[in-house]
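Review this chain:
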Amino acid sequence: METVAIFGVGLIGGSFGLALREAGYTGRIVGVSSPATIARAIALRAIDEGMPSTEAAAAADLIFLAQPIGVIIETIGAIAASLSPQALVTDAGSTKSAILAAANSQIRGNLFLGGHPMAGKEARGVEAASADLFRGRVWALTPSRQEDLQQPQCRDFVQWLEKIGAIPRILDAAEHDRIVALTSHLPQLASTALAAMLADQLSTTPAVHGPGLEDMTRLALSSYEIWADILATNRENVASALESYIASLQAVHKNVVTLANSDIRHLFEQGSGFSRLLRDASN
């Protein structure tokens, strides 16, 4: 892997470049982004130089698409004819089925390995990039065929993921989208809805609030521009997750109104048990 091309040198793309360097990668890292972003990324040493998209695709052994989902799908079509024969194309999109469908229909002579690093921040842009962003975080991989993982390009890429501290996890694209609707997309919408409701209920910043409110509304800082494509490409799974969450909230409401203390106690016990399991798994 002599040349890596990062399409979209923002938080994720910039962090990938920084992480590769810190892990000992000595090859060339090129970026495809706006001129201003390229200049900042070079100054931060996330990349070595900028290139036009087709030139970068032709020069690279690994093409890493770290753009919004709609742009990833457009880029796949735009670069498919420019790829070098042994190049591996991968991505960082938050949903996988739509991206894999585009890759399978348009990339014929090259390997495509769907990817989703389960890491991020509310801040956007290469200025927020960090070499340790992926350390200890799951990096979901969704191959079209399991045998693709045995190809040298894929094995090399997975080894670099491990070197930067990520935890590769292999799963089916449809199953990935179902799970992240519950574990990622639903938390985002719950946080956004809570913050929006409070904005309606409170005309100013509340005079009394604890850190719990800041924790619960942290995800509401995320940009709609990022989430528009995510929701559009995982609509059915997100709708199902919301229906389950609404049903749970309705049960809470009923128990509060009727003072069903035993039911509320069970809810707290069930919730705290899952929360502990989640934190134990992350340690």
